[in-house]
Specification:
This protein is of the alpha/beta class. It has a single domain, classed as 3-Layer(aba) Sandwich (Rossmann fold), CATH 3.40.50. Helices cover about 55% and strands about 15% of the residues. It has 10 helices and 4 strands, in the order αβαβαααααβαβαα. A 4-stranded parallel β-sheet has the order 1-2-3-4, with helices on both faces. Strand 1 (about 10-15), helix 2 (about 15-30) and strand 2 form a beta-alpha-beta unit. Helix 4 (about 60-75) packs antiparallel against helix 5.
């Protein structure tokens, strides 16, 4: 699939758990066709498992009986529009058994300590984009001390592409233009 998707050098933009998935693909298939990587608050450390950690601390029956609805209610009570959209998508489109199953690997990879180092050491331009509501992420100073470009998006939480799409997409476009 990697050869079919990236037939020429390309930028990859990955958000949330997608950032973790992208890095697993890089680990497996290399980065020879990667022109740049834009990580939009993708998993890099244990603190990034905001939903998955809640899931792995219980059984599938716990998830079905209460935890899933609690997660969605919490998102719906947020002041950020992205949280509302994600809650609606979770209620309408997410397979709860799949969510339960992949949460274990998400937590294990995020807890491993490998993701942050792998991201920092990718041999291509990198951008980490995060919402200003999450400016306390513990690893932001380490990213800023590396060659990774870091961009804070105003008036945004985790789902910043929905919270402030104009600013988020402008930051992505600027990075791509700079490194094309």
């Amino acid at each position: 699939m990697w050869e079919h998707v990236l037939r020429r050098p390309a930028f990859i933009v990955a958000t949330s758990m997608g950032g973790l998935v992208a890095q697993l693909l890089f680990r497996r298939h290399g980065v020879s066709r990667l022109q740049g990587f834009i990580n939009v608050e993708g998993n890099l450390a244990p603190e990034d498992c905001m939903f998955s950690r809640q899931v792995v601390n219980g059984t599938f029956d716990d998830l079905i009986s209460s935890k899933y609805d609690q997660i969605c209610r919490k998102l719906m009570s947020s002041s950020f529009p992205g949280d509302h959209l994600i809650a609606h998508n979770m209620l309408l489109n997410l397979d709860r058994r799949a969510f339960y199953a992949y949460s274990f690997e998400t937590v294990a990879e995020s807890d491993s300590g490998k993701l942050l180092d792998e991201f920092i050491n990718l041999p291509c331009p990198r951008l980490f984009v995060y919402g200003d509501h999450n400016r306390t992420l513990s690893y932001l100073p380490r990213l800023r001390d590396s060659e990774v470009e870091v961009c804070e998006i105003a008036r945004s939480a985790h789902f910043l592409l929905y919270d402030n799409p104009m600013m988020a997409y402008d930051a992505i476009a600027e990075f791509v233009d700079k490194h094309s």
